[in-house]
């Protein structure tokens, strides 16, 4: 049996990856990312741009199964769609890989930093809607974290680029990130159930206002509750986050409804006002464009009028002579 | 396929053995008896002992398991990952054997097309969730491990949390080496929960040689004594026979 801790290898730009079974070819453009779980490349295939992932045999196959399961979840667009799965017989031996839809956009953390905290609640609603559909289909997302979430669009939609942690309901969550794992915070088990995902979803909001994260102390969930209360960006929906951290929601829909209600009340309006400058940048630019367009219109109008006036003068002059 | 039990030795150490039998040979002995040996090497800085790491890799290789070297703060995550990966690896081995039997040739998972492989993987996954697991944890308590022991304790509690979220049953046992008087000292008899080790860990006094080989040898025998202990598992056929 093999030692699994060494499967990192590299493919350069311009390399062509041939599939052994389905005979597809992919031209490598650049490396998108590399992690413990594998390496992802941006490639060009017969179907256009896509993301191609190499990893160990075990995780590749497991992830593919999850992506296939995602495809069956009606209406959920959280994960990327699976396009191809194959083996590449390279010089270094057989490399299993799969090809998925390339999702473009900033990570959730980058998006919030650029556009302001008023987006936290809105995107959390989207996340909960997607989680609800996934849970209904009998799956738990597992490894929810801002680095795994991409905001594509506009119109802005939350997408997930790493589905490796997705687990069948009732089993044990195998892949997780400590900061978002309720086991780590001693707030519950690692059993795959909706409340596990909802804890992680609440921690995503916490991470967005504490980008540096923080280490755990001995007080368990209480530490998290205090941290939530300390940030005014979260004030509007703090009670919802706290309930999720304490495992009081048994379904994503329940949490979503209460979050929606919380976002509709007064404090969020103040938040929205405060965050507007970030959004104004865009309206500023479009306004400028509109002004330019108006000026152009004016110019054509005067030109037409001038020509018409000259013509009238010409006709008058002709008549007079 | 009937419900099987996966047997593992998990060795946590920070360096090279310096006493008794060759641990690599002892790991091979464990493998012969269907016990996988996984090793986690814990380091505190860059100036790590190269010879120690070589040994760590070799023990895992001959013990059919997985080796991983980590900084103390990543230990929790690593311990549960290594345990799981090794389980999957063992199960995949079993499934590969079955495939060979069914297809009467040298077919392994790698030789199957991706779609079929996915289905086989689903079976492996299912087995990993439901199989019974026995892990004997061996912790190096030589002098250099002193400041790492609190982290080891955390990591083991975390392992218990992860494994107990599975559907299958778990049994853990914990030994440290060197022991107070012997080469190995048993701290915890086979138990489904590791929580009870919290108090024991604070009473440990690290120091002495590193008898990794003898510790593995003794660990193997602990799997056997467990089996002969009457009535340990109520489901045990042997027990029913003898008690009738």
TrEMBL record, chain A:
Question: Which residue spans traverse the membrane?
Answer: 298-317
What Gene3D superfamilies has UniProt attached to this entry?
Transferase(Phosphotransferase) domain 1
| Record keyword Chloroplast present | no
Which Pfam families does the record match to this protein? Pkinase
Q: Name one GO molecular function term.
A: ATP binding
Query: Which species is this UniProt entry from?
Result: Bacillus aerolatus
The cross-references to PROSITE patterns, in alphabetical order and at most eight, read: PROTEIN_KINASE_DOM
Alphabetical UniProt keywords: Membrane, Transferase, Transmembrane, Transmembrane helix
GO CC terms: cytoplasm
Can you name this protein?
Phosphotransferase
Residues covered by the Protein kinase domain: 26-269
Automatic annotation (TrEMBL), chain B:
Record domain VWFA: where:
1-91
List the Pfam families. Answer: VWA
InterPro entries reported in the protein's UniProt record: VWF_A, vWFA_dom_sf
The molecule here is called VWA domain-containing protein
Question: In which organism is this protein found?
Answer: Bacillus aerolatus
């Amino acid at each position: 049996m093999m030692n699994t801790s060494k499967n990192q290898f590299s493919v350069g730009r311009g390399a062509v990856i041939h599939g052994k079974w389905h005979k597809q070819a992919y031209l490598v453009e650049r490396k998108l990312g590399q992690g413990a779980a594998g390496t992802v490349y941006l490639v060009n295939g017969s179907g256009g741009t896509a993301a191609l992932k190499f990893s160990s045999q075990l995780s590749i196959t497991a992830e593919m199964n999850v992506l296939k399961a995602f495809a069956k979840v009606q209406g959920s667009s959280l994960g990327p769609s699976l396009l191809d799965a194959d083996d590449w017989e390279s010089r270094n031996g057989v490399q299993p890989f799969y090809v998925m839809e390339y999702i473009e956009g900033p990570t959730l953390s980058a998006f919030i930093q650029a556009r302001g905290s008023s987006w936290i609640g809105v995107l959390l609603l989207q996340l909960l809607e997607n989680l609800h559909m996934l849970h209904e289909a009998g799956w738990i997302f597992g490894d929810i974290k801002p680095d795994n979430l991409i905001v594509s669009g506009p119109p802005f939609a939350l997408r997930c680029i790493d589905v490796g942690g997705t687990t069948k309901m009732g089993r044990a969550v195998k892949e997780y990130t400590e900061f978002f794992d309720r086991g780590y915070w001693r707030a519950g088990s690692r059993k795959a159930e909706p409340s596990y995902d909802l804890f992680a979803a609440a921690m995503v909001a916490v991470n967005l206002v504490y980008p540096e994260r923080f280490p755990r102390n001995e007080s368990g969930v209480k530490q998290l509750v205090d941290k939530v209360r300390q940030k005014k960006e979260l004030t509007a929906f703090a009670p919802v986050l706290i309930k999720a951290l304490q495992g009081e929601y048994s379904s994503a829909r329940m949490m979503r409804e209460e979050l929606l209600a919380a976002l509709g009340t007064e404090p969020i309006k103040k938040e929205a006002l405060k965050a507007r400058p970030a959004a104004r940048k865009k309206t500023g630019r479009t306004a400028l464009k509109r002004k330019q367009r108006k000026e152009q219109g004016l110019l054509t109008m005067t030109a037409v009028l001038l020509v018409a006036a000259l013509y009238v003068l010409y006709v008058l002059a002709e008549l007079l002579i | 396929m009937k419900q099987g039990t996966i047997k593992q030795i998990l060795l946590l150490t920070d360096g090279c053995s310096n006493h008794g039998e060759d641990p690599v040979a002892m790991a091979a002995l464990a493998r012969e008896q269907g016990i996988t040996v996984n090793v986690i090497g814990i380091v505190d800085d860059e100036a790590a002992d190269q010879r120690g790491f070589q040994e760590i890799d070799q023990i895992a290789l001959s013990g059919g398991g997985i080796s991983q070297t980590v900084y103390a703060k990543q230990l929790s995550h690593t311990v549960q990952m290594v345990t799981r990966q090794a389980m999957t690896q063992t199960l995949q081995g079993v499934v590969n054997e079955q495939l060979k039997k069914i297809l009467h040739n040298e077919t392994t998972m790698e030789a199957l097309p991706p779609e079929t492989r996915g289905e086989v993987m689903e079976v492996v996954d299912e087995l990993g969730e439901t199989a019974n697991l026995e892990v004997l944890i061996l912790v190096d308590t030589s002098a250099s491990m002193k400041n790492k022991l609190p982290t080891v304790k955390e990591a083991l509690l975390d392992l218990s949390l992860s494994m107990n979220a599975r559907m299958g049953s778990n049994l853990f046992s914990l030994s440290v080496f060197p022991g107070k008087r012997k080469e190995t000292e048993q701290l915890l008899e086979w138990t489904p929960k590791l929580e009870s080790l919290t108090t024991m860990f604070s009473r440990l006094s690290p120091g002495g040689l590193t008898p990794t080989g003898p510790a593995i040898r003794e660990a193997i025998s602990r799997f056997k004594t467990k089996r002969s202990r009457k009535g340990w598992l109520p489901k045990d056929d042997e027990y029913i026979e003898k008690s009738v």
